[in-house]
Design brief:
By secondary structure, the chain is of the alpha+beta class. It is built from 1 helix and 3 strands. It has one helix at 56-68; strands at 3-12, 18-29, 32-40. A 3-stranded antiparallel β-sheet has the order 1-2-3, covered by helices on one side. The protein starts with a strand and ends in a 9-residue tail after the last helix.
């Protein structure tokens, strides 16, 4: 499976530490995609809920990728 990065940034979490965030998308099947948010540099939280933060520009990139790379031509006509 091809994983495509659609966004990345860094943010300060303490005086001495900066975390790196990457937002990626991959095609699971013809009608399913998976969006992954990876944060490096901090201890992961444990819980039963998972969420992904998507910026406006990243959403635009996501729509472009699913149209051009995955062939979802009926998205946001």
């Amino acid at each position: 499976m091809t994983v495509i990065m659609i966004g990345q940034d860094k943010f300060k979490i303490s005086e001495d530490e900066v975390a790196k965030r990457e937002l990626k998308v991959m095609k699971v099947s013809d009608d399913v995609i998976q969006v992954q948010e990876e944060i490096h540099g901090i201890i992961a939280l444990v819980g039963a809920t998972s969420s992904v933060n998507i910026k406006k520009e990243e959403l635009k990139n996501l729509i472009k990728v699913v149209k051009e790379e995955f062939g979802w031509t009926d998205i946001c006509k």
